[in-house]
Task: structure prediction
Amino acid sequence: MDLALKIVTTAVKPGDVAIFWLGQAGFLFKTATGMLIAVDPYLTDYTERIAGFKRLSPKLIAPQDLDLDILITSHDHPDHFDADAVPLLMANGRARLFGSVEAAGHARKLGLDPDRINVMKAGDEVQIGTLKITAVFADHGELAPDALGIMLMVSDKKIYLAADTAYHPEVVRTVRQIKPDLIIVPINGAYGNLNETEAARLAGESEARIAVPCHFWTFAIHRGDPQAFADAMREYAPSCMAKFLYQGEMFIL
Result:
Protein backbone atom coordinates (compact mmCIF):
# COMPACT_ATOMS: atom_id res chain seq x y z
CA MET A 1 0.00 0.00 0.00
CA ASP A 2 1.16 3.53 -0.79
CA LEU A 3 2.50 5.15 2.42
CA ALA A 4 0.40 8.30 2.03
CA LEU A 5 -2.74 6.17 1.73
CA LYS A 6 -1.68 4.00 4.66
CA ILE A 7 -1.27 7.06 6.87
CA VAL A 8 -4.68 8.43 5.91
CA THR A 9 -6.52 5.13 6.31
CA THR A 10 -4.88 3.96 9.55
CA ALA A 11 -7.47 4.15 12.32
CA VAL A 12 -6.04 4.67 15.79
CA LYS A 13 -7.98 3.53 18.84
CA PRO A 14 -8.35 5.83 21.86
CA GLY A 15 -5.33 5.39 24.11
CA ASP A 16 -3.07 4.28 21.25
CA VAL A 17 -0.67 6.08 18.93
CA ALA A 18 0.43 4.93 15.46
CA ILE A 19 4.14 5.36 14.75
CA PHE A 20 5.68 5.35 11.27
CA TRP A 21 9.44 5.35 10.59
CA LEU A 22 10.15 7.72 7.72
CA GLY A 23 13.82 6.77 7.50
CA GLN A 24 16.94 8.37 9.01
CA ALA A 25 15.75 10.11 12.22
CA GLY A 26 12.28 10.92 10.91
CA PHE A 27 9.11 9.63 12.56
CA LEU A 28 5.41 10.31 12.08
CA PHE A 29 2.86 9.93 14.87
CA LYS A 30 -0.91 9.67 14.41
CA THR A 31 -3.25 10.03 17.36
CA ALA A 32 -6.77 8.72 17.90
CA THR A 33 -8.13 12.15 16.96
CA GLY A 34 -6.25 12.04 13.66
CA MET A 35 -3.57 14.56 14.64
CA LEU A 36 -0.38 14.06 12.62
CA ILE A 37 2.96 14.95 14.20
CA ALA A 38 6.24 14.63 12.31
CA VAL A 39 9.63 14.78 14.00
CA ASP A 40 12.74 15.41 11.87
CA PRO A 41 11.33 14.07 8.58
CA TYR A 42 13.96 13.80 5.82
CA LEU A 43 11.96 13.33 2.64
CA THR A 44 13.99 14.77 -0.25
CA ASP A 45 17.55 14.85 -1.58
CA TYR A 46 18.32 18.12 0.22
CA THR A 47 21.45 16.80 1.95
CA GLU A 48 22.89 15.61 -1.35
CA ARG A 49 22.05 18.93 -2.98
CA ILE A 50 23.88 21.04 -0.40
CA ALA A 51 26.52 18.65 0.99
CA GLY A 52 26.94 15.83 -1.52
CA PHE A 53 25.62 13.09 0.79
CA LYS A 54 23.64 10.81 -1.51
CA ARG A 55 20.71 9.05 0.09
CA LEU A 56 20.82 5.27 -0.22
CA SER A 57 17.23 4.70 0.84
CA PRO A 58 14.16 5.49 -1.27
CA LYS A 59 12.08 8.58 -0.72
CA LEU A 60 8.94 7.19 0.90
CA ILE A 61 6.45 9.99 0.53
CA ALA A 62 6.25 13.37 -1.16
CA PRO A 63 6.19 16.22 1.39
CA GLN A 64 3.01 17.63 -0.13
CA ASP A 65 1.26 14.33 0.59
CA LEU A 66 1.68 14.75 4.36
CA ASP A 67 -1.13 16.87 5.81
CA LEU A 68 0.61 17.68 9.08
CA ASP A 69 -0.68 19.37 12.18
CA ILE A 70 2.68 19.59 13.95
CA LEU A 71 6.25 19.61 12.59
CA ILE A 72 9.07 19.29 15.12
CA THR A 73 12.69 19.90 14.14
CA SER A 74 15.30 19.04 16.77
CA HIS A 75 18.11 21.03 15.14
CA ASP A 76 19.17 22.69 11.92
CA HIS A 77 21.14 19.90 10.23
CA PRO A 78 19.94 19.05 6.72
CA ASP A 79 18.90 15.49 7.53
CA HIS A 80 16.71 16.82 10.36
CA PHE A 81 15.60 20.16 8.94
CA ASP A 82 14.87 19.29 5.31
CA ALA A 83 14.62 22.77 3.81
CA ASP A 84 13.35 21.40 0.50
CA ALA A 85 10.47 19.69 2.32
CA VAL A 86 9.60 22.09 5.14
CA PRO A 87 7.77 24.71 3.00
CA LEU A 88 5.66 21.94 1.44
CA LEU A 89 4.93 20.41 4.85
CA MET A 90 3.75 23.81 6.08
CA ALA A 91 1.77 24.69 2.95
CA ASN A 92 -1.62 23.55 4.29
CA GLY A 93 -1.85 26.80 6.28
CA ARG A 94 -2.49 24.88 9.49
CA ALA A 95 0.73 23.09 10.41
CA ARG A 96 2.76 24.56 13.25
CA LEU A 97 6.53 24.21 13.47
CA PHE A 98 8.34 23.74 16.77
CA GLY A 99 12.11 23.79 16.55
CA SER A 100 15.45 24.68 18.05
CA VAL A 101 16.67 28.27 17.85
CA GLU A 102 18.57 27.68 14.60
CA ALA A 103 15.85 25.52 13.05
CA ALA A 104 13.17 28.10 13.76
CA GLY A 105 15.43 30.80 12.37
CA HIS A 106 15.94 28.76 9.20
CA ALA A 107 12.17 28.39 8.84
CA ARG A 108 11.74 32.16 9.05
CA LYS A 109 14.42 32.64 6.37
CA LEU A 110 12.37 30.38 4.10
CA GLY A 111 9.57 32.93 4.30
CA LEU A 112 7.18 30.78 6.30
CA ASP A 113 4.39 32.29 8.37
CA PRO A 114 6.14 33.55 11.52
CA ASP A 115 2.95 33.08 13.55
CA ARG A 116 3.24 29.31 13.01
CA ILE A 117 6.95 29.08 13.91
CA ASN A 118 7.76 28.37 17.55
CA VAL A 119 11.21 28.33 19.17
CA MET A 120 11.87 25.68 21.78
CA LYS A 121 14.76 25.41 24.22
CA ALA A 122 15.55 22.63 26.66
CA GLY A 123 12.93 22.65 29.40
CA ASP A 124 10.19 24.23 27.31
CA GLU A 125 6.79 22.52 27.18
CA VAL A 126 3.74 23.07 25.05
CA GLN A 127 0.29 21.46 25.29
CA ILE A 128 -1.77 21.10 22.11
CA GLY A 129 -4.99 19.26 22.78
CA THR A 130 -4.04 15.80 24.03
CA LEU A 131 -0.42 16.22 22.86
CA LYS A 132 2.33 17.49 25.13
CA ILE A 133 5.72 18.37 23.63
CA THR A 134 8.73 18.79 25.90
CA ALA A 135 12.13 19.89 24.63
CA VAL A 136 14.95 18.24 26.59
CA PHE A 137 18.73 18.41 26.71
CA ALA A 138 20.81 16.87 23.93
CA ASP A 139 24.58 16.91 23.52
CA HIS A 140 25.37 17.33 19.83
CA GLY A 141 28.53 19.26 20.65
CA GLU A 142 29.73 22.21 18.63
CA LEU A 143 27.98 20.78 15.58
CA ALA A 144 24.64 22.06 16.91
CA PRO A 145 24.82 23.55 20.41
CA ASP A 146 21.08 24.29 20.39
CA ALA A 147 20.10 20.71 19.45
CA LEU A 148 17.22 19.21 21.40
CA GLY A 149 15.89 15.86 22.43
CA ILE A 150 12.11 15.58 22.22
CA MET A 151 9.62 14.01 24.62
CA LEU A 152 6.07 13.50 23.42
CA MET A 153 3.17 12.62 25.68
CA VAL A 154 0.47 11.18 23.44
CA SER A 155 -2.58 9.36 24.82
CA ASP A 156 -0.74 8.92 28.14
CA LYS A 157 2.16 7.25 26.29
CA LYS A 158 5.60 8.79 26.81
CA ILE A 159 7.87 8.75 23.77
CA TYR A 160 11.45 9.99 23.96
CA LEU A 161 13.30 10.81 20.75
CA ALA A 162 16.99 11.31 21.39
CA ALA A 163 17.40 12.95 17.95
CA ASP A 164 21.15 13.61 17.61
CA THR A 165 23.06 13.28 20.87
CA ALA A 166 26.12 11.80 22.47
CA TYR A 167 26.07 9.73 25.66
CA HIS A 168 26.14 12.45 28.31
CA PRO A 169 25.34 12.41 32.06
CA GLU A 170 22.57 14.96 31.57
CA VAL A 171 20.99 12.85 28.83
CA VAL A 172 21.09 9.83 31.14
CA ARG A 173 19.55 11.87 33.97
CA THR A 174 16.83 13.07 31.61
CA VAL A 175 15.76 9.61 30.44
CA ARG A 176 15.81 8.28 33.99
CA GLN A 177 13.44 11.08 34.95
CA ILE A 178 11.15 10.66 31.94
CA LYS A 179 10.90 6.85 32.13
CA PRO A 180 9.45 6.65 28.61
CA ASP A 181 7.35 3.83 27.25
CA LEU A 182 9.29 4.10 23.99
CA ILE A 183 12.82 5.37 23.38
CA ILE A 184 14.03 6.18 19.86
CA VAL A 185 17.81 6.35 19.54
CA PRO A 186 20.44 6.98 16.85
CA ILE A 187 23.02 4.19 16.49
CA ASN A 188 25.45 5.54 13.91
CA GLY A 189 28.18 6.56 16.35
CA ALA A 190 29.44 9.43 14.21
CA TYR A 191 28.99 13.20 14.03
CA GLY A 192 28.41 13.41 17.78
CA ASN A 193 25.85 10.62 18.01
CA LEU A 194 25.36 7.53 20.15
CA ASN A 195 26.91 4.34 18.83
CA GLU A 196 25.15 0.99 19.06
CA THR A 197 26.42 0.19 22.57
CA GLU A 198 25.77 3.67 23.94
CA ALA A 199 22.25 3.61 22.52
CA ALA A 200 21.58 0.28 24.23
CA ARG A 201 22.99 1.60 27.50
CA LEU A 202 20.69 4.63 27.28
CA ALA A 203 17.72 2.36 26.60
CA GLY A 204 18.60 0.39 29.72
CA GLU A 205 18.96 3.55 31.79
CA SER A 206 15.57 4.78 30.59
CA GLU A 207 13.68 1.64 31.71
CA ALA A 208 11.65 1.94 28.49
CA ARG A 209 9.56 -1.02 27.36
CA ILE A 210 10.57 -0.63 23.72
CA ALA A 211 13.64 0.81 21.96
CA VAL A 212 13.66 1.68 18.26
CA PRO A 213 17.01 2.38 16.57
CA CYS A 214 17.32 4.94 13.79
CA HIS A 215 19.85 7.13 11.99
CA PHE A 216 21.37 4.36 9.88
CA TRP A 217 21.34 3.17 6.25
CA THR A 218 20.40 6.54 4.76
CA PHE A 219 23.92 7.76 3.97
CA ALA A 220 26.99 5.55 3.54
CA ILE A 221 29.12 7.89 5.64
CA HIS A 222 26.75 7.68 8.62
CA ARG A 223 27.41 4.01 9.41
CA GLY A 224 25.29 2.19 12.05
CA ASP A 225 24.87 -1.56 12.58
CA PRO A 226 21.44 -2.78 13.81
CA GLN A 227 22.83 -6.23 14.65
CA ALA A 228 25.43 -4.65 16.94
CA PHE A 229 22.59 -2.73 18.60
CA ALA A 230 20.61 -5.96 19.07
CA ASP A 231 23.64 -7.62 20.68
CA ALA A 232 24.23 -4.65 22.98
CA MET A 233 20.56 -4.55 23.99
CA ARG A 234 20.79 -8.11 25.28
CA GLU A 235 23.67 -7.04 27.51
CA TYR A 236 22.65 -3.55 28.64
CA ALA A 237 18.85 -3.52 28.38
CA PRO A 238 17.61 -7.12 28.64
CA SER A 239 14.14 -6.08 29.84
CA CYS A 240 13.62 -3.64 26.96
CA MET A 241 12.42 -4.93 23.60
CA ALA A 242 14.53 -3.84 20.63
CA LYS A 243 12.08 -3.17 17.81
CA PHE A 244 13.49 -2.96 14.30
CA LEU A 245 11.43 -1.23 11.64
CA TYR A 246 11.81 -1.14 7.90
CA GLN A 247 11.49 2.32 6.42
CA GLY A 248 7.82 3.15 6.10
CA GLU A 249 6.73 0.52 8.62
CA MET A 250 4.07 1.36 11.18
CA PHE A 251 3.39 -0.03 14.64
CA ILE A 252 0.89 0.78 17.36
CA LEU A 253 2.03 1.80 20.82
Notes: The helical segments are 3-9, 46-51, 86-89, 101-109, 169-178, 196-206, 226-236. The mean pLDDT is 95. The chain is about 25% helix and 25% strand. The two ends are 21 Å apart (CA to CA).
